[in-house]
Amino acid sequence: MAHNTEEHARSEFRTSDGMFTVNADQRIKTWNATAEKLFGYSSDQVVGKKCYEILCANSNPGRVKCNRGCVVMSNASKGRTTKDFDLECKTASGDVKSINMSIVLPMQGSGSREILHLFRDVTDRRRVESASVGSSIPSIDKPQNATHTSSGFRLPALTTREDQVLKLLSAGKNTNDIADILDIRPLTARNHISRLLTKLGCRSRLEAVALGNRAGLI
User: What does the alpha-carbon distance between residue 139 and residue 136 come to, in Å, rounded to a whole number?
Assistant: First the structure.
């Protein structure tokens, strides 16, 4: 009866995030449609297999390593939750994606021993953030009127967010893409783009990208 109750509750649980559950032996028990789409593995291909055998990219730089007896499982065995974390995971095609993972533990006394993993793809977001850290465009925290790029072309100083938006525009991202990648509202993304164009003195996104290329910043 408890098992049927769990299955019913799970069927009623809706999320746009990827979702899978594992048991105490780290074997995958459920795998939703978003997980199938993101990783390229169907539910039939992964259920019953060890989670780290499916997901591990062997290059995880974060505090949680995807392997046997990981921090998530260690914490769960003691009834402790795990703060959300980034994990590099491999897809069926061999690509590596950056995944932000959240862990949900069953309530004590529920009878369930399955650990719920909720995750979302942050590959583009982390790539842009990483590129901005080493950018030659000065941050707003370092006041300057303008900067000379490696090409000698003079540009006004951009904030870190404006730098990110410029790089995303150069990658062909539209307003909704930028909002999703930077985890902001579309209206906020549109405002960032507008301020960027004004600061660069450009009339279009294409012109801003061309200017950034000319300056050697993209």
Answer: 9
Measured CA to CA, the distance from residue 84 to residue 55 in angstroms comes to 17
Instruction: Quote the CA–CA distance of 97 and 123 in Å, as a whole number.
Output: 6
Domains and CATH numbers, the chain: 2-121 (3.30.450.20), 126-214 (1.10.10.10)
Q: Angle at which helices 186-200 and 160-170 pack, to 10 degrees?
A: 90
pTM, full prediction:
0.64
Average pLDDT, consecutive stretches of 10 residues, N- to C-terminus, the chain (218 residues): 45 77 94 94 96 83 81 90 90 92 80 85 81 47 44 71 89 89 90 92 90 77
| Alpha helices by DSSP H, the chain | 2-12, 33-39, 43-46, 51-55, 71-77, 123-133, 160-170, 175-182, 186-200, 205-214
CB atoms within 10 A of CB 7: 11
